[in-house]
């Protein structure tokens, strides 16, 4: 299942499905976990060359005020309450 989702994302990316958003991403930036961070682990399926290039210009704040893990505090609190 996970492999199918990965292939779908790769296909959509290479087809330009996500190209309208202009969100900055650099797969070789040290803060995001680079594609070559695990040289001793054998590659099962190579990452398409297109997906190794930096894209976009709009930098998104990953830790906005009032959010926890990308979820508004009020929603996060309700979800957390379900586990109490």
Index terms:
2 helices; 2 strands; mainly alpha; 84 residues; two-stranded antiparallel sheet
In short:
With 84 residues, this protein is mainly alpha-helical. The protein has helices at residues 2-14, 73-82; strands at 67-68, 71-72. The protein is 27% helix and 5% strand.
Provide structural commentary:
The protein has 84 residues and is mostly helical. It has helices at residues 2-14, 73-82; strands at residues 67-68, 71-72. The protein has a two-stranded antiparallel sheet. The longest helix is centred in the first third of the chain and has 13 residues, at 2-14. The chain is extended. It starts with a helix and ends with a helix. The model has no long low-confidence stretch (mean pLDDT 87).
Multimerization status = single chain
Strand content: under 5%
Helicity level: 25-40%
Tally of strands: 2
What is the string of SSEs from the N terminus onward? HEEH
**Average pLDDT value?**
87
3D shape: extended
* Tally of individual helices: 2
**Structural class determined from secondary elements:** mainly alpha
Give the radius of gyration: 17 Å
Q: Cα distance, first to last residue?
A: 31 Å
Low-confidence stretches: none
The neighbouring-strand order within the major sheet is: 1-2
Largest sheet: 2 strands, antiparallel
SSE diagram, text form:
Elements: H1 2-14, E1 67-68, E2 71-72, H2 73-82
Antiparallel strand pairs: 1-2
